[in-house]
Amino acid sequence: MSFELIKKVNDAQKKASVVDARSGDTVRVHQKIKEGAKERIQIFEGVVIRTDRKDSHTSRITVRKIASGVGVEKGFMIHSPLVEKIEIVRRSKVRRNYLSFLRNRSGKSARLTGVNFDREGVNDVRDEAFEAEEARMKEEAKLAAEAKAAEKAAEEADLVAKQAEVEARHAEEA
Q1: φ, ψ of residue 157 in degrees (nearest 5)
Q2: pTM (2 decimals)?
Q3: Are strands 114-115 and 70-77 parallel, antiparallel or unpaired?
Q4: Partners of 92 in the beta sheet?
Q5: Do 106 and 86 touch, CB atoms closer than 8 A?
Q6: Which is nearest to 100 in space by CA: 66, 59, 62, 70?
Q7: DSSP 136-165
Q8: How does pLDDT run across 51-71, given as a tens digit for each residue?
Q9: How far apart are the C-alpha atoms of 57 and 49, rounded to whole Å?
Q10: Which of 51, 69, 153 is nearest to 110 (CA)?
Q11: Are the CB atoms for 54 and 28 separated by under 8 Å?
Q12: 76 with 64: CB under 8 angstroms?
């Protein structure tokens, strides 16, 4: 019973659809950064050197890049609300899940052999339920705007009629 409840709560925390990032992929991670009251999106591009717990709500990738000659690694929780999206730029042929050997390499020896893949197909992650809900909300907003415009037009017609009535009274008095 409790295991089922935990699984249900964990599945509720997952994003509906995420990109299948693998070890060896060069990815571009769009992450929300909060600085005081402001919020912005920061992009971190590098090679995925590790993937953990793919099917779990705590699935994580570790991304490594070289910045100013210094290796920088950053871990991202895939289902975190702070991770806006993950975009796969390149896919490489690797034979292991944890590419720790890349830490000791630099220059040409740190390169991975590229593989052809369908970039648009891999990065096209759509949630049909969300898109249907968004379309329904847009339609409702459109109908509400049309109703408001019709109400405003009726008020305008009413004001024009009152103005004509007032002008007719003034013409009779004069």
Answers
A1: -65, -40
A2: 0.65
A3: unpaired
A4: 114
A5: no
A6: 62
A7: HHHHHHHHHHHHHHHHHHHHHHHHHHHHHH
A8: 988 877 788 999 999 999 888
A9: 20
A10: 69
A11: no
A12: no
Q: Look up residue 162 and give its amino acid.
A: K
**Structure tokens that stand for 157 in this block:** 């017609």
Tokens of 80: 């975190």
User: What 3-state class would DSSP assign to 80?
Assistant: coil
For the segment 127-151, the average pLDDT, to the nearest whole number, is: 85
Q: Does domain 2-125 bear CATH number 3.40.50.1820?
A: no
Q: Which of 6-10, 59-63, 99-103, 140-144 has the lowest mean pLDDT?
A: 6-10
Residue with tokens 């008095």: 173
| DSSP single-letter state for residue 119 | H
Structure tokens at 154: 């009726």
Q: Identify the helix (H) or strand (E) that includes residue 59.
A: none
Cα Dmax for the chain = 99
* Residue spans of alpha helices (H) in 16-127: 119-123
Q: Please state the φ and ψ torsions of residue 132, each to the nearest 5 degrees.
A: -65, -40
Element (H, E) at 67: strand 60-67
Q: Which residues pair with 32 in a beta bridge?
A: 41
